[in-house]
Specification:
By secondary structure, the chain is an alpha/beta fold. The two termini are 25 Å apart. One of its GO terms (cellular component) is cytoplasm.
């Protein structure tokens, strides 16, 4: 199973790159983690925010693999524990296919991306910076895998 993190935003700080890479390299080949960064829609003085979000949505929809299960990370999504995440990873792996996890930009996900998602997860009730979400999600995916393996990392 390939897990794609499809994220709006490029040119992340070094600590984001290092954090993401640390957990991505720990993932086993049977649950490979792949990052797909998408350009942020144009924002600035006089910019049309709706157009920016639509542009991000177009790129995100194009980046989703054919036949992938889609999960959106959204503040209004369902809170999920590490153990629940591990269980869902096990189910996804048994069912086969790949997974696309969508992380929007500073103004959230395009409504079309939310509508396409079969599930919506919330990592926290806190507002998290989108770069940090990449690192946090990669760590939780790794932690979920360790739970499934009975590895002591989770304890």
């Amino acid at each position: 199973m390939r897990i794609r993190l499809i994220c709006v935003g490029t040119k992340m700080p070094a600590w984001v790159e290092a954090g993401y890479q640390e957990y991505a390299k720990r993932m086993p080949p049977e649950m490979a983690l792949e990052l797909r960064e998408l350009s942020l829609g144009h924002r600035g003085k006089g910019a049309d925010l709706k157009r920016a979000i639509t542009s991000e949505g177009d790129a995100m929809l194009a980046a989703i693999g054919k036949g992938d299960r889609v999960i959106a990370l959204d503040v209004l999504g369902k809170p999920i524990s590490t153990e629940q995440l591990a269980g869902q990873l096990a189910d996804f792996q048994m069912e086969g296919g790949n997974l696309s996890l969508l992380i929007g930009g500073p103004d959230g996900l395009d409504p079309r991306c939310l509508a396409l998602a079969e599930r919506k997860w919330s990592l926290s009730k806190l507002t998290l910076p989108h770069p940090l979400v990449r690192v946090l999600l990669a760590e939780q995916l790794y932690r979920g895998w360790t739970v499934l393996q009975g590895h002591p990392y989770h304890k």
